[in-house]
Amino acid sequence: MLRIYREQGQQLPEKQMPAVLCIAGNLCSPEVFDRITVPEGVQKLYLDYLQSPGPWDMDSLGQQLLDTVRELELGPVVLAGYSAGGVLAISAACKGPDQIAGLLLSNTGPCSLGHGNPGFADELREHFDDEGYIRGFLASCFYRSADAELMDRL
Q1: Residue 2 carries which DSSP code?
Q2: What CA–CA distance (Å, rounded) separates 2 from 12?
Q3: How far is CA 82 from the centre of its chain?
Q4: Are 79 and 38 in contact (CB under 8 A)?
């Protein structure tokens, strides 16, 4: 089961309560969703798929996400995906359209094949501890420049 938690105190989500499930991209903090507000009576949740035991391909993760939503008895659920989190949201929605009430996607590309640098995933792993590289990568993820406070938190 994938880890889904609430904003405050990382509590477990409430069953049968409408939810917006925030899914950040690889190497991105869930804080990219901090400015999203949800209406009263809707819980804002976060998915931590990077700590899962795997497999980590989008097809498997999409199924794991649906299984977790079922097991936690969440619903209705809107998936908010940023970057690779958006790809995961699309995968889950395609596998279980009856379980997903909607999608909110940002900066989501289906893959890097044929787009610039096909070795990008290996490059990210190689420079994972290089703050300058990671800041440059994160800066490239936004259409408009993110403010300095958000960049520091990410």
Answers
A1: -
A2: 12
A3: 5
A4: no
